[in-house]
Amino acid sequence: MELTMGQRDELQGLVNSPDVAATVGTRARIVLWWAEGRLKKDIAALAGVSRPTVDLWLARYAAGGLAGLLDHRRGAGREQVSASVRARVLALSRTSPPAETGLSHWSSRELAAYVARTEGVSISHHYVAKLWRDNKLTPHRQGTFKISKDPEFAEKVADIVGLYLEPPGGAVVLSVDEKTQVQALDRTQPLLPITFAATEKRTYDYVRHGVTNLFAALNVGTGEVFGECYPVRDGAAFLAFLKAAVKPHAGKEIHVVLDNLSTHTTPDIQSWLAANPDVRFHFTPKGASWINQIETWFGNITRQSIRRGTFTSVTVLIKQIRDYIAHWNTNPAPFTWTATADEILAKVRLVQANIKKLVDNNGK
Predict the structure, then answer these.
(1) Choice between 46 and 279, residue whose per-residue pLDDT is larger
(2) Whole-angstrom Cα distance, residue 311 to residue 340?
């Protein structure tokens, strides 16, 4: 069974989600292990289930995707929720939690509890999770929606989204940024387990061997990634990376999406841009790095390669990063950008209105 990168992320999301039963996480692991090429008898032993059970969940995933791995409650009637409450849940799901909640993002349980408090209507977290699946919403993975105070926010959003949705004919669009201070951590022997209620969690000691800075450029049209590691993050390192990133596209019109760091606008870089008029910079709004597509790829490499890795040196860490990039580029796929500039600006206006309402209410 071959899985796309998106399918792997979805399955890993089930494995890591606190909102699904452990049995569902095990089913997701079964599919992931099978995609890795493991034998079914080995998967059964790892999962602690029978061989026919492995066949059952592989077949259900093949037939129904993620929905095939979820439990369907029997005997209970369908949860009756009014259209207005349903609309309220969807609206909340598309914005960050209000500041007074102290939450960085919604979970299905937190959103259900919030609706119960504010609307006086009791809904289950199962209903919220199903609504998210039906509408392809993943607020538990997206995190916060940060509001930019950039006075040119609307113009910059329109510029960059225009590049994503309708790039100039024959042009190359590169989404560029740096992931700084990536640590080479060597996980050593586990410490004594810490007991929380009836569960036990082992903690680990770490040895830190140093850090590196990952510079990366995502080709928005093809999904290919060019990346290099540097010991420092300064204008000279960025210019060296930029020259290498655009070199394969010589002779083409190149648009580079990047943030507003001072290292991106040094005199040397300005001189290089003047000497290379085919390369044009498009700066994201201040405080709005979420619009830069390379941030999505950084999330992937962090979850899939770096976060749980053990690296005995910076050299080992850099090799892991390069191996991941090489693996990614064997079957790259561009990220699908669907939100128009008008939709983004409308969402920002909605969030701003909610904040103003909150401030006004607290001031009374």
Answers:
(1) 279
(2) 41
> Where does residue 205 rank: exposed (0-12), middle (13-18), buried (19+ CB within 10 A)?
exposed
Residue 39 shares a structural domain with residue 104: no
Q: How many structural domains are present in the chain?
A: 3
Q: Which residue has the tokens 């995502």?
A: 218
349 lies in some domain: no
Closest to 333 in 3D by CA, of 5, 90, 86, 24: 5
Name residue, tokens 């997701």.
Answer: 28
pLDDT in tens, 232-251: 989 999 999 999 999 999 99
| Same domain (yes/no): 114, 220 | no
Give the type of residue at 103: L
| Rounded distance between C-alpha atoms, residue 253 and residue 249, angstroms | 8
Give the structural domain span for 54. Answer: 5-69
Indicate whether this model's pTM tops 0.70. no
The tokens describing 267, both together, are: 């005199």
The stretches of the chain forming alpha helices (DSSP H) are: 5-16, 22-35, 40-47, 51-64, 83-93, 108-119, 125-134, 139-142, 153-165, 235-246, 267-275, 294-301, 314-328, 341-363
